[in-house]
Task: structure prediction
Amino acid sequence: MKKGRLNAAIMASGLLAAMLAFGAVPAAQGSTVQRSAAPAASGLRVQDRSHDNDNPDNTLYALYQILNSGTSAVPLTSVTMRYWFTNENAADPLVFECDWAQVNCANITSKLVTLSPARTKANTYVEIGFTAAAGSVGAGQGTGEIQTRVHHVNWSNFTTTDSYSFISDESFVYKDTQTVTLYVNGVLAWGTEPS
Result:
């Protein structure tokens, strides 16, 4: 009995020493869980394709799809994309339109943000998000096409080549893009913001 209590005391003191040296076990597990959330989201990437290569143009067309090459599903409510562009006519208000989306345009959200200070080839961006009804993008799957555009109320022209996210590609084929940025829970997960 005495020997059993002595072993228990030694084990307890060893556990106490380990906890002091390495931290409590629950805290270590919690930090591991938090770190693993980011790699799951890092499998997301954005592809876009040209719809209209005109310059100037009264509309900035952007057709996207989000692909998940990760190992777990990502809820689309945690995902936003930014299309960065130059608005040369701030006096003519901007309008965002979703023309078609496999996840349904009713499940697409948007907000137009004016940058101060402006960045290279961008003084504005449109941030595109998703409602809960859009669901998740599963591992090895994609959202399908999302067709959007930005125009002015009075159809003023944009110099499309002065817009960071605008692509001019006569192949009209989906390709990975670094100029349309993607965020998971507000943290940049894909692409490069304009400097």
In short: Helices lie at 2-22, 25-41. The domain at 42-190 is CATH 2.60.40.710 (Immunoglobulin-like). DSSP finds two helices and twelve strands in the chain.
